[in-house]
Amino acid sequence: MTVRKAWIVASAVVGAGLSFVMLLVVGVYMVAGNLANGVGGGSVGLAKGAVPAAYRALVQKWGNLCSAINPALLAAQLYQESGFNPRAQSAAAAQGIAQFIPGTWATHGVDGNGDGRRDVWDPADAIPSAASYDCELAKYVKDAPGDPTENMLAAYNAGAYAVIKYGGVPPYAETRNYVKTITTLQESFAAPVERVDPSRQAAAAIEYAQKKLGTPYLWGGTGTAAQGGRFDCSGLTQAAYRSVGIELPRVANDQYNAGPHPSRDELLPGDLVFFSDDLTNSRAIRHVGIYVGGGYMIDAPRTGAVIRFDPVDTPDYFGATRVTEDGAKALPTSV
CA 214 to CA 14: how far, in whole Å? Predict the structure, then answer.
């Protein structure tokens, strides 16, 4: 590989309450069945809070450097590389928010902020350098057949020569997986321009969570027998979606990136809803629940409480994610 790093309501619920929720779910999904497909065309903006506020303007600006990239795709690369951590360093000596290895930085690093220095640890240099490098790769493979963005990503992973040799994305499993990962992950960073598809697995995930109503909260709980079947907030949402074959990350702020982000008035049952004390930074998310409709979610709120219905319209409401199977698979195992 030629670049940066290896890619390797109530606390107890009676039967009538449960019936109400399931009727609500069924009714909403009957209406939602004909929603338009996910992110549509047009200019690409960034989803609210998806990129930390300190880097949002840089990503928005430099993500428009050439036609092969966009702000959401650049954000997806930075998240995959470092989780937006400007001090990240890998065992392979990849450095900074964009995880350049020293040799690549020496050739492709740029002075993005015009201070006379090229500093791999400074996002004001590293983010422009990542965009510039993407665009250079796009130029190298511009005559290759196929999608220019996919060819650029393939060149990023496998080298421009491989893309030229094979006339597009080369037949390497790692490279094809990388291209799919980044193009899928970018949907989590893009502000949707149309309604996003309802999740096919949502009703079953809600049903799982409903069966846990009244269970005492446990910090770090993932529902194991040794933990008495108890959960914390992200442990519950992880288990609910695992029950329908979707594997989410363990922590709430990474679960936020498991799909596109419907607005508050477009919420559907099964959407994950998130809460934070910093509404500008998805990395600061501290709580998650499963939306059930009518302005309520099922969540595991805190020590001393039980899994229950709670309202979502609170001052710390951050946003929502419509979980997709591909979106969950695209998430890095650790960032």
Answer: 11
Measured on CA atoms in the order 190, 196, 201, 202, is the torsion positive or negative?
positive
Residues 255-277 pLDDT 10s? 999 999 999 999 999 999 999 99
User: H-type helices in 14-52, by residue range?
Assistant: 15-32
Sign of CA dihedral 20, 22, 25, 26: negative
Alpha-carbon distance of 74 to 226, in angstroms, equals 42
Residue 335: predicted pLDDT: 59
First and final C-alpha spacing in the chain? 20
The token pair that represents 21 in the structure block: 């929720």
Q: pTM for this one?
A: 0.82
Write the single-letter amino acid at 28: V
Residue 13 CB neighbours (<10 A): 18
What percent of the chain shows pLDDT beyond 70? Answer: 86
Cβ neighbours of residue 251 closer than 8 Å, sequence gap 6 or more: 234
Instruction: Measure the CA angle with vertex 219, ends 218 and 221; round to 5°.
Output: 65
Average pLDDT, the chain: 87
Q: Which residues contact 109 (CB under 8 A, 6 or more apart)?
A: 100, 118, 120, 125, 126, 129
Q: 160 or 12: which carries more pLDDT confidence?
A: 160
